[in-house]
Amino acid sequence: MNCLICSTSFIESASWQKLFLIKPADVICNQCRSKFEKILKTKSENEWSGTIYEGALDSVKSFYTYNDWMKHVFQQYKFQLDVELAKIFVEDFRPLRQVQELIVPIPLHPEMLHERTFSQVDQFLIDANVPFKNVLSKTENRSQVGKTRKDRMSTELLFSVQENVQEQHIVLIDDLYTTGTTLHHAAFALKKAGAQTVRAITLIRV
Amino acid sequence: MHAQDKMSIKVDDIAAHEDVFTWTSTHSISGSKIRGFAVNQHEQKWYLTYAFESEKEKVSFLNQSLTGAAFLMKGQETELPLPAHEYGFDMHTYLKSHGAQGMLTVISMKQVLQPEGVTGWIAKQRFQMEKHIELHFPLSLQPETKALLLGSRDDVDPQESRAYQILGITHLFAISGLHVAFLTFIFYQSLLRLSIRKEVAVWCLLICLPVYASLVGGAPSVWRAVGVVEILLLSRQFHMRVAIQDAFAISLLLYIYLQPGVLLQVGFQLSYVAAAVLLFSSPFLQAQSTVFKQSFWITFLCQIGVAPILLYHFYEISLSSFVVNLLFVPLFSVIILPINLMLFLFTFILPSLADILFILYEPLRMALTMFILKLASLPHQLWNPGKLSNWQMIVAFTGVVGTFFVLELQYSFKRLALTLGLPIIIIQGSLYFDSAIEVTFLNVGQGDATLIELPHRQGTILIDSGGLLRFDQSAWKQSGSPFEIGREVIVPFLKGRGIHTIDTFVWTHADSDHVEGAEEILEEMNVKEIHVTPGAITEDTLQQALQTALTKNIPVKEKMAGDGFRIGDSNFTYLSPQDTTYEGNNDSLVLYLKHELFTALFTGDLEQDGEENLLKSYAGIQNLMLLKAGHHGSNTSSSEAFLKRLQPRLTIFSAGQNNRYGHPSPDVIERFKDLHLPTLTTADVGSIHVRYNQQVMTVQTSYEKSIKKRDLSK
């Protein structure tokens, strides 16, 4: 087996889950794996208190820090379109198969999707075999990159809700959590459309 | 109880064999005999037994390396002895596990060839090392050194060996994978130190490892470890890296392909399962934060993993092993093994230094042995739920694998209650469900041993313990570990049934064939009380057992006619003797059992006079359901008057095959036939198991599968 990140051949480790075919084979070597930094404790968020978005998002959980290694891998995934790399995080997203809530990924703008050929958020869920529903659609194709925090926090609503989410419990999925604008906007839209609870899971927390 | 399979090896064509046989490494010389596996010219493996004609012949065998040596042998194919009962040693399985055709009793043996070839040469080295150890090591250290360095465990003292079992550390005295890894590491590093190129060093290892495996006797654990290392090294040499679990699987498949019988060997099962447990639990083990935690979990997981196998083969597991191994595994692998290696080396290069070290080391090692024996003597160290049935094995293994998952998935330890606690409760609990009363007449050869198990484990009564008449033999014929009925037939049966406590142990009288095995039962079981016929305790045959009873604080009570006891719905009454002077057979302690409609009489060696006395005093006893005939069916017992009154629906003769007394006597058998009273003899049918449940009596015998049901309500 060759590591998806460093391409060197590595030896698959043994485990009971793999023996009983519950867990797929590793896609990256242990060395590359160990360079990711897991977030063990989620910090509580209060930057949005006082805005209209306060309380829209019930909780946020992220798996990894945005360290140099993650930046490097994420670059390769998102911008060099190395779609295979989504498999690295299968284990992180797999527990979502068991949750009762509706799983909603943050969408790309259709134009953006066309450009990138795949949705980097959906792909995590697809590889982890997690059922999800594209409930949201993006209203404008404006990237958040290059904006100040203040700019970001005050943009107009970024999403519209396409389906009925009355009384639903929702888990939002996104790749990066930087200021939380995207997630708060999405949560706000969902709550407004009648969702009962909205929590979020992101791969990375900056 | 499942009856044993009939032997599949046919004996119709018993023929004299004359062939050249080459000894394999699996053979042993003990007492006046050599036993073991040898291969004939057609590559067929046979199990041979040969009794030496003289001490001189024995010595000549002892003084040479036999593995690989060829002999012209004349012998006869022998019918395999059937197991004494379903938990007894099974020769058939043993031969199958070694891929042998059958058993030959050799009449004459003449050497035609010295050990040949590579294996012959390796065996010779091993033999010489063994001799070297015998010559240079203190006697008390020899068995351990031989076991650790050469994998030869023949000399380990049985008492110490039992202590290791109780503590669950037997595996330390076998050459394990860890052991092989340790030696491989030392060897490889030494080669590198000698500035040998890595490439060459690896090839050296590749060649030396199989030589080492065969030098140390080639136990499955050694071949497994060597096999895995060979596959890993070879694959690396050819630049195809194989994962360790793949190497493990390849070695497993290859082993089974080359030697299918090995699947039946306990050593093979334990070795592969323990290794698999460690291999597949590696993510969990590697996540442990401290070395101590890691070693705890290694011990824990291994013990849990092999527990079902141990229970299947030995009917008990050591509970203390979980703790004891934490201390003993490092002690043996880091201290004792290296010390033995070092001492062994010094006896070659610096014998004088070795002698000084022996003076220092021997007392320390002796102290450790004392400590081990002391530790093993503590009570309640074993869990003994009996032999696991197939469904219990499934429950046990499901629990074991479940446990591995709980740990790997980092679930809460509370879930272990489900994966470990539940199977334990189910397996232990199933012992208490049986509402039958069961009586087993154990096949102890010429002698008596009867076990009564009351419903729902209310109590266990053992009447007599069989025994051998030991004759004085010349010193050279005596075996280091002679066959013991109590230890090798009765105790395994009790353990197989999940029994560790005997409420009442009855000694009917003082003849060897009834009580010689008693001492061994007292040593291995928790006996609450002994009942003995009055006056018998001064007899020589009982002295050893009485001594053991004394040291273990077991009360010995004299009982006679009129005495009795009651457990649950079962009434026990002694009907004989009626006087207190001990005069032998007629003073046998006779026990009468009544449980609902079930009645049974156990007569010991009671003869006609005693029977008459019994009839006179207990007129009410008639229409018996089960009778153990007095004195093994001798002509002097089972008088017509006695049988006519009792009308036993089933009578058991407990007698040995081809015994010298001709028991049971044809006259007596005739007497029963004339009265239309059915009988069974242990010599013919093996152990006899009688079950009584809800007015139905079932009889099952260990040699035959047929079950006879007798509905008593009719």
TrEMBL record, chain A:
Residues 129-205 form the Phosphoribosyltransferase domain. Signal peptide: none annotated. InterPro entries: ComF/GntX_DNA_util-trans (IPR051910), PRTase-like (IPR029057), PRTase_dom (IPR000836). Belongs to the ComF/GntX family. This is ComF family protein. It comes from Paenisporosarcina quisquiliarum.
UniProtKB/TrEMBL annotation, chain B:
One of its GO terms (biological process) is establishment of competence for transformation. It is found in: Cell membrane. The chain crosses the membrane at residues 166-188, 200-226, 238-258, 264-284, 296-315, 327-349, 356-376, 388-409. GO terms for cellular component: plasma membrane. The keyword Transmembrane helix applies. Coiled coil: none annotated. Residues 446-657 form the Metallo-beta-lactamase domain. NCBIfam families: ComEC_N-term, ComEC_Rec2. This is DNA internalization-related competence protein ComEC/Rec2. It comes from Paenisporosarcina quisquiliarum.
